[in-house]
Each structure stands twice: as C-alpha cells, then as structure tokens.
Amino acid sequence: MTALDLDRIAAAFVKSSPLNYVAADKALRPDLVGMKMLEPPIFGFAAADDDYILSLQDNPGANLKMDPPSFWLEGAKTVISFFLPFPDEVKCSNRLDRLLPSQEYMHSRVDGQTFIVALCRHLKEALVAEGYQAVIPAADPRFWSNAAIDKQGNGMLFTSNWSERHAAYGAGLGTFSLNRALITQKGMAGRLGSLITDLELPPTPRAYTKLEEYCILCGACIVSCPAKAISLDKGKQHSPCSVYLGEILAVNRPYYGCGKCQTSVPCEHRPPRISMR
Ligand code: SF4
Ligand code: SF4
To answer: pTM value?
Structure first.
C-alpha cells in the first residue's frame, strides 16, 4: 500500500459513494438531490514520532492535550491526514447571502461530515485488507472534546485529545489562518479527516516553518464574519462563533453551518502566500 494507492482509493470512493451526494430523503430543496458535497482529497503524512505531533500532548498555546499516535494505536508509524475541498457549486452558493449559510453549504457541512467518517472507514478497510492496522481518532470511543470558559478572559475555549487541524499541519497539508482554520494548497474551504496506521509512509515535507505562514492577515475574514468573532489582535473568538452557529442550528436542525470566513476570501481556494523555502 502506497500513498498513491490511498489517493486512488479515496478519489474512487468520493466519486462513487452515494453518501457523498445529497439523498432524496434529506434534501433541503428538491433541486439539491444528487448534489456532490465534497471533492477528492489531498493527502499529507506525518511520522508517528514527528516532533510537532508529539509536542501537542500538552500545548497550552494551542489549548491542546492531543494524545500521541502510540496512544491511539500500538506500533503506530504514520498519521494520515487529508483535506477535501468543497465543490465550486457549494462555495459559490455560500456567497449569495452575507449572513445566512446556503442550503448547499449546510449539506456539505453536516452530511459531508458523515461522508468523511465513511471515507475514513473505507480507507481503514483497505489498510486492514493489506494486513495493516488503522484507527480513526475522531470516531474512536476514546476521543473526547470539551468546552470551558477561559480564566484569562478569552471567552470559550475548546480542548480535545485529537485535532484534525494540528494533525494536518504536522502532515504538511498547510498552515493556520487568522480564523483558526487550515489554509492548504487547495485553500481553506473544505473539511479535514485523519487516520493513524502502522503502515510506514514517507512523511510529507512541511513547506513552512511558522504556524500561520500562509495567512497574509488581509482581514477579509474579519469583514465576512456575521458574528464579529474574528479580529486581527485576537484571531477567532470561539464564543460568538458558537452562539451564531447555535442560532443557525435552532432554525435548521439538524443542519447548521456558516463558513462565511472561508467564502470570497483570498485563501478560499489556495494559499495567498506560498513559502519561498
Ligand atoms: S482572509 Fe486573509 S486574514 Fe483571513 S485567514 Fe485568509 S488570508 Fe488570513
Ligand atoms: S464560522 Fe461564521 S461565525 Fe464562525 S468565525 Fe467563521 S464567519 Fe464567523
């Protein structure tokens, strides 16, 4: 099993799985039946003993207590991370209203997440069929996340024992943005997933040295945010964002989402600044 094999298996699943298309019994509008929710992923790989990944076990700056790969899987060799961009149809639809998420976006955000878990399971099955072990941290019973009020007055803080964004940074997929998402080579508008395996794969070189290297601090996401949750000095504040998402959920349950900070911004489709290293 090689990185190229994983790429091919994922691309075929994204294309053929009915879970990646809006189902008739869930469609928020009749014309959305069959709409594709996510594009094929790009992959990045980090060694299980990678210094950055291991540094996240107790990282107050990132508010993380990320368990190491060896916690999730004995004999772990590789963290597999991937990013699936939203299709252009979904991105464009979310430009039409400055405040409310499009129904296309909510499908990709909510049903798309179900698809990502299915894709992880599909990749795991492919690895197991080749004699390797794999664990999906975000779908593992040992995964936890919680929210707490920050004693330093920074509002609500979220902690978890696995972070898709930090795994992706470590796996060479991209760097953080002002609004705490990840800017990949395919931009920021999309979703992340990961697995840990005992298959050894060559690590993806990190073409950056700083956490927010690709963000040009242009402030476009500050202007786009309907909850005023983003600022140049504090980045993204979780509390106003969570409150806003809760309001969207209250009238669209089980659907929700926003994504305005990823829409019509310079980092939506690609990094606005590429490392010269
Ligand atoms: S819109 Fe500008 S400031 Fe916001 S994350 Fe993208 S590059 Fe950074
Ligand atoms: S998801 Fe919406 S509310 Fe939250 S930070 Fe982005 S634009 Fe603001």
So the answer is: 0.94
